[in-house]
From TrEMBL:
Coiled coil: none annotated. InterPro entries: ER, GroES-like_sf, NAD(P)-bd_dom_sf, YIM1/Zinc_Alcohol_DH_Fams. SUPFAM superfamilies: GroES-like, NAD(P)-binding Rossmann-fold domains. Residues 5-281 form the Enoyl reductase (ER) domain. GO terms for cellular component: mitochondrion. This is Enoyl reductase (ER) domain-containing protein. It comes from the Eukaryota. GO terms for molecular function: oxidoreductase activity. Pfam families: ADH_zinc_N_2 (PF13602). Signal peptide: none annotated.
Length: 288
């Protein structure tokens, strides 16, 4: 879960494999395992990065999980279809471009990775939001079938699926292209960093069965498909921090909910499935 706050104490003993802790008083953010809805949390330094001056705790808290996830997706897609020394993705479809993750994907693709053609799907009221984030083409999925809009020469080289609709998206990707999904079934290999002791056999079988329909459909379509589960890394977050600092990436905030009393309300917004950007709980007032 995402956290942003100030370091109040550090371990007195060095932790094997961990970088030195950030000094007390450093403003830090990161994505940590377990819960983060608390006045104080324990976090490994390797999962954190300093919050740049001028970036608020709310913006910092909105960023790590979503931004790192889409960055890792886009890096993978660059590996599949990227061209030239900078591995530029020629064209990209992002589903749910005004959602928590999709809004970072559109911005990163357009402003950082310089994808020449970024297409995204949103519902009507969010078309202007996705356009402002930098999308070149915005499809209102409630009125326009995405498959119909992206056929023939209009197909894309790559897609990042944040909705879990990968099978229906496959015809929108040119054969030889690639899709990475974060909202659908997960391949067992993605659990490696989270289950260092190994993925149990029963779980491997269950995940393989869940993935089989999309894996088969992708193979038939000639498209490289994979799922991605975020691997949280402070070193990568330091790069994201630089993009926050220079304004290349600006978190899209749906709403901020104050105090632990606000948690129920925040989850209500999330569970409704139509957030415009990220939902943030401000557990402690800034400066408090
Ligand atoms: N694998 C990972 O590591 C990882 C990391 C982060 C998130 N995720 C997963 O990724 C998914 C998205 O997360 P999120 O934080 O972006 O969720 P979110 O912010 O709650 O996404 C909601 C957005 O989805 C849009 N949406 C819903 N149905 C849609 C459709 N059929 N087509 C296009 N847009 C649609 C909604 O827009 P409208 O109101 O316009 O419908 C809304 O903007 C979730 O399943 C989440 O669990 C996975």
């Amino acid at each position: 879960m995402d956290v942003a706050g100030v370091v109040t104490a550090t371990s007195a003993v060095a932790v094997a494999g961990e970088p030195p802790p950030f000094p007390v008083g450093t403003r830090v953010f990161g994505c940590i395992p377990g819960g983060a809805l608390a006045d104080a949390v324990a976090a490994r330094a390797s999962l954190l990065a300093p919050i740049p001056d001028g970036v608020s705790y709310v913006d910092a808290a909105a960023t790590p999980l979503a931004c790192l996830t889409v960055l890792q997706c886009l890096r993978r897609l660059q590996g599949h279809v990227g061209a030239g020394p900078d591995r530029i993705i020629p064209s990209l479809l992002v589903t749910a471009g005004a959602g928590g993750t999709g809004s970072f994907a559109v911005q990163l693709a357009k402003r950082v990775l310089r994808v020449p053609r970024v297409v995204t799907t949103v519902s009507g009221a969010k078309v202007a939001v996705a356009t402002a984030l930098g999308a070149d083409e915005v499809i209102d999925y409630q009125t326009t079938p995405v498959r119909g809009a992206l056929t023939g020469a209009h197909r894309v080289a790559a897609a990042l699926d944040a909705v879990g609709s990968t099978i229906s998206l496959l015809p929108t990707v040119t054969p030889g292209g690639a899709v990475v999904s974060i909202g659908g079934p997960l391949q067992a290999g993605e659990l490696g960093p989270w289950l260092p002791a190994g993925v149990p056999l029963y779980l491997r079988v269950a995940l393989a069965l869940l993935c089989a329909p999309v894996a088969v459909a992708a193979a038939v379509a000639g498209v490289a498909w994979s799922s991605l589960l975020l691997e949280s890394k402070g070193s990568e977050l330091a790069q994201v921090a630089a993009w926050l600092a220079d304004g290349s990436v600006v978190p899209l905030i749906d709403s901020v909910h104050d105090g632990l009393d606000g948690v129920h309300e925040a989850y209500g917004v999330l569970m409704a499935g139509h957030a415009t950007g990220k939902v943030v709980v401000r557990v402690v007032a800034e400066g408090g």
